[in-house]
Design goal:
By secondary structure, the chain is mostly helical. The chain contains 4 helices and 2 strands. It has one domain: Fumarate Reductase Cytochrome B subunit, CATH 1.20.950. The chain has a two-stranded antiparallel sheet with strand order 1-2. Helix 1 runs antiparallel to helix 2, helix 2 (42-72) crosses helix 3 and helix 3 (85-115) runs antiparallel to helix 4 (147-182). The structure holds protoporphyrin IX containing FE (2 copies).
Length: 197
Amino acid sequence: MSLKNTRTRWGWPAKVFHWVMALLIIGLALVGTYMANFLSDMFLQIELTQIHKSFGFVAFTLAVLRVLWRWANPVTPALPEGQSAWERGAAHLTHYGLYALMFVMPLSGWLMASASPLNDANAYPVQIKNMVFGLFELPDPIAPSDKELEALFHTIHAYSSYLLAALLLLHIGGALKHHFVDRDSVLRRMLPWGRVD
Ligand code: HEM
Ligand code: HEM
């Protein structure tokens, strides 16, 4: 497997970024929805939220590295001949949207958690700091207990996750259409050991 992308293949770093981040982001969205809406045990909720913040930080770091790698390697596999203009447009728009959400999701989560009263040493008996795997604390751009900003970033975080789900349906649907209907190599060329004709 080559390091760099070509006009027919993805290099191995692009594939590793894609699949590690796909697992991470889908996992964060599912666990996030569960812990925020379907969990009645408060202690478990706090525990899961801390894990969510930690993996969210990892997702953000990987997003920065991925975009840097993509800028350094502007060549990407071409879409197959015979795709209509709207199909090309839809694929590119979906990819741009997914790249944007890789930043909007963790940044809105971080700002929401920073503004939260739970992060206020004076408001609750125990302050719940925004730690990454208990190793270090995330910086606080917003003074805690700013309920308006907390609500604003919560709205952005939650609505962005609906947009993420919609774009992923289009994205995965598109990949499956390429494979099963058009029978081209678009899905195979992103798979770890996918054969490309
Ligand atoms: C089961 C889930 C998924 C499948 C089957 C899938 C499939 C694919 C395929 C086949 C490509 C390559 C398209 C091409 O070669 O022209 C691709 C690219 C891409 N995927 Fe996914 N994907 C999945 C999940 C995700 C997730 C969760 C994200 C991010 C939130 C994501 C973001 C992207 C982006 C941004 C690209 C474009 C890469 C670039 O042009 O730099 N994918 N995906
Ligand atoms: C790609 C990264 C991320 C994804 C996909 C994601 C996804 C989600 C989703 C879907 C929810 C449920 C929202 C709701 O229904 O109210 C959620 C909740 C939450 N997220 Fe994230 N998140 C990410 C990163 C982060 C980060 C980096 C932080 C903080 C540092 C964070 C903090 C939170 C908090 C505190 C909640 C709970 C909100 C509540 O209790 O209503 N998230 N996340």
